Amino acid sequence: MKKQGLKATIVFLLITVQLIPLMSQTATKLSVLDTRDVNTGPNGFDFETKIEFKNRSVIGVPGTGMYSGLLTIAPWSDNSGNKHHQLNFNDGGIFYRTGWPLDTTWGAWTKLVLEDANGKVGIGGSLGVGTQTPNSKIEVKSVHLGNQDDEIRIGSYYNNNFYGLGLNYRINSVGDPSKHIIEYHRGIRYDLMAFANGKIGIGTTNPLANLHINSGANNNYATILATSNEGNNLVVSSHDTQPHSCTVFKISHEYSNNPSHRNNGYIAFHRGSSENGGFLELGTSGLQRLLIDPAGRVGIGTTSPDQMLTVNGKIHAKEVIVDLNVLADYVFEPDYNLMPLHKVEQFVQANKHLPGIPSASEVKNDGLSMGEMQNKLLQKIEELTLYVIDQGKTIHQQNARIKELEEKLK
Question: Which residues does 50 contact at the CB level (< 8 Å), separation at least 6?
Answer without folding.
Answer: 33, 71, 72, 74
